[in-house]
Amino acid sequence: MSAGLGILELCQKAARRKEEAALNHPRMTAPQRAYASSTARRLLWRGGNSIGKSWIHAWDDIHFARGTHPFRPCPKGPRSVLIAGYSFAQMDPLLQKLWALLPKDEIDPRLYYQPGNGILGFKVPCIPFVAGPGRGSVIYLATYEQGPERIMGWQGHRLSLDEPPPQDVYAEAIPRLNFFAGELRVTFTPTTSSPPLDYIREEVAEGRITELQTDYEEANCTILGGPVAWAWKTQAEIDADVAGYLPDDREMRRSGAWTPAIKGRALELIGEHCWIDGPIPKWKEFRIGVGIDHGTRPGRQSASLVIEAGGDYYILDEYRPQKAASTEEDARGILAMLARWRIPYTRVNLWIGDRATSASYWGEAKSNQDLLDALAAELRITAKEARRQGLKIQTARKPRGSVRRGVAKLNSLAREGRLKAHSRAAGFRAAALAWKGDDASELKDSVDSARYALMALYDKKELDNPTFSTIGA
Fold first, then answer.
1. CATH class (in words) of the domain with range 10-255
2. Domain ranges (residues) in the chain
């Protein structure tokens, strides 16, 4: 019995020594060291697959929670850290490394790791430190699937996001760090199924997030700090990996490129057979959608008028100011677009707008609520009365892959002869002929506003059909 206990104790000591060695004497690559030693309050590490993001992400969070970070000071007292990703299954590589590095004699003994399901032991997933330098600190675990509500009310010292967060989660995350002047860490490789990333790309462009970008290459996979530098992948092996990636997301997975490398047009099936001018069909039953893509920069605001009739879709018109427009100007432009087709605002089946956009050098922040208020003011009614009459602007759902799905639907409808675009939708026409899928392109805004309305009409076929016959330009 005593011999058995002695062996158990030896195993436990060996496990602790392994954890302590990995925590206190790590060997890192140059990019990992740059990430761990950054003093930026908000930091994004964007790079290719297999460059060691998960391991250093876990190491960095543990040292922050324990207050033992070797490269920079940590807040005093117990620290509150929240780590989030799409799902615990998706986060498994990170959570596996987190569990391997956690000093087991410092965390609550009820905790255990289950592959694919995360670190368990508490109803609300968390990792309390009950001993050691981090005593009193807690690492909370959450998923994007739970939505922004999961982090509402939390105030912490650090928020770590594994993989690109949906915009509504990110928007809720930033204020959660205000009280303690906490820091944000984000690591990801963009993929073709990522949620729209234009918002976080703009955060980088405007200097609100410091960015590190790393290619998947031998120099960045070389571990330093020991007697001999060691690369876990040779360049020949890396080249073979990259050659096996699908062409459109090859650069995303190799270098963390923001968008797929689409050869030619993204809307390649939209052509001459889709264009209409002058009179339009006289439909007996049809549904009307208005899609809105908010923008503050010159030429980035867009609203589209879309009709669905008998399974066919018509992009009839758009509001696309070429200057930086105010919300009040947007409201007047949208109502003028409806007036050109003699459509009362009460006849619109579905209003759907983008998520709120923050203020920029060019203009004020914009949101669906602000636009509703401006539309009501222009109509000389209250916002409550406008909503009662059906003017309710829903927020577009933008899950992973939503842009890809919308573009695929536009292409398939065009191939089937069920998509038409009127000459008044000039921005959409220009995008159909030239847009190559770049999220940052101005051409994308007209595509976004059109697909918001079209996809909402397509997904909500149960909407009542209006039967009035006054539509016409």
1. alpha beta
2. 10-255, 272-459
